[in-house]
Amino acid sequence: MVETANKERVVLAYSGGLDTSVMVKWLQVEKNLDVVAICCNVGQESQDLNWVKQKALDMGAIAAESVDMRNEYAEQVLTKAVAANGLYEGTYPLLSALSRPMISAYMVEAAHQYGATYIAHGCTGKGNDQVRFETSIHAIDPSLNVIAPVREWDLLTREQEMEWAAAHDVPVPTTAAKPYSIDDNLFGRAIECGVLENAWNEPPADIWTMTVSPEEAPDTPTEVVIGFEAGVPVSLDGKKMSMLDLIVKLNKIAGANAYGRIDMIEDRVIGIKSRECYECPASLALINAHKALESMCLDHDTLHYKASVDQKWATLIYDGLWFSPLKNSLDAFIASTQQYVTGEVRAKFYKGTFVVTGRKSDYSLYQEGLATYGDGDLFDRSKSAGWISLHSLPTQTWSKQQGPKHVQSLSEHEVKQFQIGNTATPVPQVPTEKAKVHVVCA
Fold this sequence. Notes:
The protein is of the alpha/beta class. The protein folds into three domains: 9-68 and 95-175, Rossmann fold (3-Layer(aba) Sandwich), CATH 3.40.50.620; 187-359, Argininosuccinate synthetase, chain A, domain 2 (Alpha-Beta Complex), CATH 3.90.1260.10; 398-441, no CATH class. It contains 17 helices and 14 strands. The strands form three sheets. Strands 3-2-1-4-5 form a five-stranded parallel β-sheet, with helices on both faces. α8 (243-256) packs across α9 and α10 packs antiparallel against α11. The chain starts with 8 loop residues before the first strand and ends with a helix.
């Protein structure tokens, strides 16, 4: 590490992309700070990130690290995401949001190690990641100060930012012809900006790198069998492997079959809607396979209640609240539901689809003898009538005491609205009260 007298230090979350490359130089020029650049490898497309470390040193950073976090990320974070079926707004597998807490934790550790007063990030002033980084950093060490240069400088557009980089001899990978903002890790790729900002534009073919188009995918399905133990993916096609290796292999299989593309309008933390494109081959497949196994191994009440917990968990992660009391409590609940989610799920990839074709588990609550309508039926039908009588008792009581008043008050306007809403089977005009009751029941 190169020592510089009388300068405070800042630890910068460094990726080697446009924003953080400009940041290394900007923090030196504009803030008079010594920069320690930390690049965290959570499964980016470029697996060897030593070039990122050298790039930071070449631009004047007093120290730089390239930290391989892939195994830790897969085992400690992504397993939780699968257990929680983590899909923000039911669609997005949280790939960027999942990596930020682990990176933030290491940044705090590095700040303590290097005696830094500040932590800096390259997030924009209108994005989600500024919230995630700063909320996580302050949850771990509230005494650290955070610098967000993009919120301060006058480089309002990416084009201006690229001009500044060129003027200060900062090498960047982005060009004006393809000004996408890309974030990637083991769980997929996030692509935004450029022509994608017009929500009517079809995503250009060149944004996709993990998946082929459906037209280029094989004409025959590819079958896989994914094994789980206590909710954790542990095998692929009968072969035991680490979470990291499983994700890497499944990304290739799913991507080769055109599976995992997402084009959505999502609600950002700060209150605006954003058009986002994602490639998430393995993450979508693992979550959907896990949900299929849960449907077999969890009881009715737990399965239905967990769906709301999963949704809340995903929202907390998206909002940057990994280090929060509620998230910790939800983790405990989710972990307790996973103890019997063990078994295998068979599925087929075919031209952009992932279809579950079978599932099995020693802890299955699905019993063929109870479900069958054929030979071997174990269900006692004689008990149904009594159960239905008790199940419907509250409704029966309401109907006797209050129901007829509401049923008979159906107005002509309401009848007309009902007819409009059911144009395929219009309700005929009828003069009797009895017929009106029939309308309501229909």
